[in-house]
């Protein structure tokens, strides 16, 4: 079990949302030699004992790789997660842990804000070939549209297609800010759309290649077919699958477009420029037509699929772009925000906006939420 997986399981246990399967994994790690069950917190004393047990084991495990616990020296860098745990990492790979009171009501930390904004959720609009639309988050499970001989079916927050068609028909799915959606294309390829994104695709892939178009951010798990390559058009890039799972970030308000390969292989081509082939764990950034390949942080890049924000030395502007899309808010800057203020850490995308901003209060920046869903940022 990786340290990140362990910390997530520990947090979920403390918050009381651990599944039976996850509980078994955590139990096995804690006991190693035995099968003793974890105690479920039944009161303050039990909860405190459980906290101490969990984090003493994590602390001991981290100490194995470091002969001494070195003092932490950091410049406004915070690891903050789900109002349960703060984890600070030193250069010597030793960890310190600080427990927060999980009994505290989430709103108690945010009463000084004028308003609050709920997090985004599953939702999208399906644009049919005939021009009509279906708001997917407001319809029941089942068939939501029939186009020729093919049906679009909603199944628990996902859209799938049943049947086949020889007609040339196209659908588009769009997610507004504050929405995300999952889709299985007619060829079996799975797609996850982040907020403020879209995908345009045919209901039958009949040519020599399968081509879809995306805006915003999307994650693909492609149903490979060597005889019919799968291609994604995003901006002026064409990404070709060679048996692959990959993430595309093509928001127009970001400084560069990024394609990150999780497994398999992809070829990335910019119109009029060179083509590069990525290996798993690599990322290509494209800005002004130039391609730059580097090693990717897969967990951070695909964190949105896990339901978290994940940052590494992120600037205030980068933070605000992501929050604006997920919480569907506007951002207003008053005064000059220090350019050297950065944030590293993870935060749940299921938190309210006030909770998220409360977690950022260690930065030398002040935040407020206005009633008209606007974040005001002040030095």
How would you portray this structure in words?
The chain has 379 residues and is α+β, with helices and mostly antiparallel strands. It has a 19-stranded mixed beta sheet that branches. The chain has a 3-stranded antiparallel beta sheet with strand order 1-2-3, covered by helices on one side. Strands 24-27-26 form a 3-stranded mixed beta sheet, covered by helices on one side. The chain folds into 4 domains: 3-104, no CATH class; 121-206, no CATH class; 214-296, Jelly Rolls, CATH 2.60.120.1440; 307-378, Phage tail protein beta-alpha-beta fold, CATH 3.55.50. The protein contains 7 helices and 27 strands. Helix content is 19%, strand content 38%.
Mean pLDDT: 76
Strand segment count: 27
Share in helix: 10-25%
Rg computed from alpha carbons, rounded to a whole number of angstroms: 23 Å
- Total number of domains: 4
Distance linking N and C termini: 41 Å
Helical/strand content category:
alpha+beta
Shape: globular
Q: What can be said about the biggest beta sheet?
A: 19 strands, mixed
Query: β content, as a range?
Result: 35-45%
User: How many distinct helices?
Assistant: 7
* Uncertain stretches of 5 or more adjacent residues: 62-113
């Amino acid at each position: 079990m990786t340290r990140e997986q362990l910390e997530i399981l520990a947090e979920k246990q403390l918050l009381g949302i651990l599944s039976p399967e996850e509980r078994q994994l955590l139990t096995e790690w804690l006991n190693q030699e035995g099968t003793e069950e974890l105690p479920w917190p039944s009161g303050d004393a039990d909860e405190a004992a459980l906290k101490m047990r969990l984090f003493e084991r994590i602390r001991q495990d981290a100490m194995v790789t470091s002969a001494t616990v070195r003092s932490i020296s950091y410049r406004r860098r915070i690891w903050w997660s789900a109002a349960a745990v703060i984890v600070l990492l030193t250069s010597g790979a030793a960890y310190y842990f600080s427990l927060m009171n999980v009994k505290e009501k989430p709103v108690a930390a945010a009463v000084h804000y004028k308003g609050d904004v709920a997090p985004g959720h599953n939702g999208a609009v399906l644009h049919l070939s005939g021009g009509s639309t279906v708001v997917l988050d407001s319809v029941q499970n089942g068939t939501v549209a029939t186009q020729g001989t093919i049906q679009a079916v909603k199944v628990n927050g996902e859209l799938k297609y049943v049947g086949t068609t020889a007609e040339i028909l196209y659908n588009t799915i769009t997610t507004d800010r504050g929405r995300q959606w999952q889709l299985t294309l007619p060829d079996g390829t799975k797609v996850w759309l982040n907020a403020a994104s879209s995908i345009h695709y045919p209901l039958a892939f009949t040519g020599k290649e399968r081509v879809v178009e995306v805006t915003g951010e999307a994650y693909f798990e492609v149903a490979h077919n060597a005889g019919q390559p799968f291609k994604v058009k995003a901006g002026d890039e064409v990404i070709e699958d060679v048996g692959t799972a990959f993430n595309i970030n093509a928001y127009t308000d970001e400084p560069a477009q990024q394609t990150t390969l999780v497994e398999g292989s992809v070829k990335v081509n910019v119109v009029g420029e060179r083509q590069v082939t990525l290996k798993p764990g690599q990322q290509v950034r494209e800005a002004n037509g130039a391609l730059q390949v580097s090693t990717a942080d897969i967990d951070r890049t695909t964190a949105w699929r896990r339901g978290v924000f994940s940052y590494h030395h992120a600037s205030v502007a980068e933070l605000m772009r992501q929050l604006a899309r997920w919480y569907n808010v506007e951002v207003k800057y008053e005064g000059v925000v220090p350019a050297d203020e950065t944030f590293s850490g993870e935060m749940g995308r299921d938190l309210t906006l006030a909770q998220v901003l409360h977690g950022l209060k260690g930065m030398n920046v002040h935040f407020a939420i206005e009633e008209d869903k606007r974040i005001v940022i002040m030095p």
